[in-house]
Amino acid sequence: MRALLGSVLLMAAGSAVADRLTMPRGMGGVPDIGAIPCSVFNQMLVVAPFGTRHSLVTWSAGYVQARSGKSLQEAVTAAGGTSGGWTYDRIAGDLEAFCAANPGAVTGDAAASVAKALQVAQKSP
Amino acid sequence: MSTTVAAPAPGKSKLWKPPIVGIITFVLMFVGVGLAHTMMVLIEHNLGRETTLAVSPLLGFIGIVMLWYGVKSKNENFQTWIGFFAGIIVWMCWVEFFYMWYGRMNWGMLPRMDGADGLRVSGTWPEYMIMGSTVGTLLMMLCFYTFDKDTRCNMFLWFQDRLGLREGLGPTTKTAKDRNYAIITFMETFFVTWFCYAWNLLTFDPGLVGQGDLFVAVNLASVFIATIWAGFCFTRLIQFKRTSTALRYAIPVGNIAWVNIEILEKFDMMNAIWVDPWSYTLEMSVIFGAFVVLIGLLVIAPKKPSEVGGRVGVAE
Asked: Does B212 touch chain A (CB under 8 A)?
C-alpha cells in the first residue's frame, strides 16, 4: 500500500514538473517574465540589468496591447510621447522602481502600474 | 626588487627545501584564485559598476605596463611575479570586465536560472555565457603551444611525445637564457585561467550536459580528473627547490585544484565566501593576510643565482 502511495506521489510530482514551462536548455531568463516575484526580478537585475528590464518592457508592451488595443508606441504617443517624458528609460525605470518598492508583488503588477501611469484605457469588448 | 639575493642559498637552507617551496607556492596560487574573485568584487563595489566597466580597458594597461617593466628585468624571480600579477590584471580587466560590459549592458543578455522552480539566479551570469563560447578560440590558441618546438610546458611536451612530433619539430632553438619569464608567466597565467574557466563553464552548460544525470556524471568526472591531475602535479611541485620555477608550476596546479571548488559551489556544497567579503570580513581578512605573508615568505626566500639575474641555466 505504501509502495503504491509512493508511486502515485512520484507520478504526481513528475507530472507537476512536466507541466511547468521551462526555458530551452542553455538559454538565460525565465519563460514568463511578467509572472515572477519582484524579488526574483530584482536579483536578475543585479547581474543582467539591461536584458532583464528589456524583457519586462516587452512583456509590458504586450500587456498594454492586450488591455487597450494600442501598441506601446501608440500608448506613449497618446500620453505625450518621448518629449513628454515617456522614454524607454522612463518606462524601464518605472518598472524597476515598482519592483524595488514592492518585492512581494509580481512583475505583472509593475506592468499594470506603468499602464495605469500611461492612462491606458480598457479597450471595449 | 631587481637584486633580491638572500642568504643562505636554497640548497643549504633548512627551511627552503622540498617540500616546503612547493607547498607554499601551491597554497599561494590556490588561495590566490579565490582572492582574485574577491578583488574583482571589491573593484566593482568601490568604483561602481558603470565606472568599473568604463575604465577597465584602461586598468588593463596597468598590467601591460607592469609586463613591460618585467620583461626588461634580468631577474627571473621578479619577472615571474610581474608576469603572474600582470596576467591576473589583464585577465580581469580585458576579459572579465569587458565580457561583463558586453553581456550585461551592451548585448542585454539574461542570466541562466536554476533551482526547482527555475527562479534562482545561477552563477552563470552573461559574461560567463560569452566566455563559454570562446572555447574554440582557446583550443585554436593552444594548438600553437602544442606545435611549438620551443615550448617547455610539461603538458605540451607530453602531447608532442604522444603525437610523435618531437622529431619533426626538431630541437629547440632557445636555451634557458633566451627565455623571458615575465611574458612566459603572463601567458601561462592567462591561458591557465582561461582553460579552467572554459572547463567549468562547459561542464556546467545545460545546453551541453543538461541538468540531470549527465550533468552530475560529467561534473563528478571533472572532480575526479581535476583531483588526479592537480594531485599528480602537486607531487612534482613539492620536489622543486627554486621558488621561481615552483611559482610558475604552481599556477596551473592551484587553478586545476580550484576546478573542484567551483563544482562544489555549483552543487551547493560550498559557500562562496570569496565573492561576498562583506558578509565574511573576518574570514576573508585572515585569508588575505595569509596570502600576503606567503608572498612575503617567497620574496625573502633564498634564491639561486640563476633566479636573480646571474642566469647560467635554469635546471630545477
From this structure: no
Ranges of each domain in chain B:
20-110+131-162+194-307
Residue B310 — very low, low, confident or very high, per pLDDT cuts 50/70/90?
Answer: low
**How does pLDDT run across A49-82, given as a tens digit for each residue?**
999 999 999 999 999 999 999 999 999 999 988 8
Mutate to test the interface with B, among A25, A47, A55 (most CBs of B within 10 A): A47
> Which is higher by pLDDT, B99 or B311?
B99
Helix, strand, coil tally for chain A in percent (to 5):
70, 0, 30
Residues near B258 by Cβ (< 8 Å), separated by ≥ 6?
Answer: B30, B33, B34, B196
Torsion of CA B176, B179, B182, B186, to 10 degrees: -110
Run of H or E residues at B36: helix B20-47
Per the domain annotation, does A20 fall within a domain?
no
A55 vs B110: CB contact, 8 Å cut-off? yes
CB contact under 8 A, B119 and A25: no
Contact B110 A48 (CB under 8 A): yes
Q: The CATH number of the domain where A47 resides is what? A: 1.10.890
Q: What is the mean pLDDT of chain B?
A: 90
Tell me if A47 and B206 make a contact (CB, 8 A cut-off): no
B113 touches chain A (CB under 8 A): yes
Measured distance CA(B183)–CA(B178) in Å, rounded: 12
Count of domains in chain A?
A: 1
pLDDT at A125: 61
ipTM of the complex: 0.82
CA distance linking residue B316 with residue B306, whole number of Å: 10
> pLDDT for A25-36, tens place per residue?
999 999 999 999
Q: pLDDT digits over B33-89, tens only? A: 999 999 999 999 999 989 999 999 999 999 999 999 999 998 999 999 999 999 999
CA distance B11 to B184: 26
Task: Indicate the residue of A22, A29, A43 with minimum beta-carbon distance to B110.
Answer: A29
Distance from CA of A121 to the nearest CA of B (A): 31
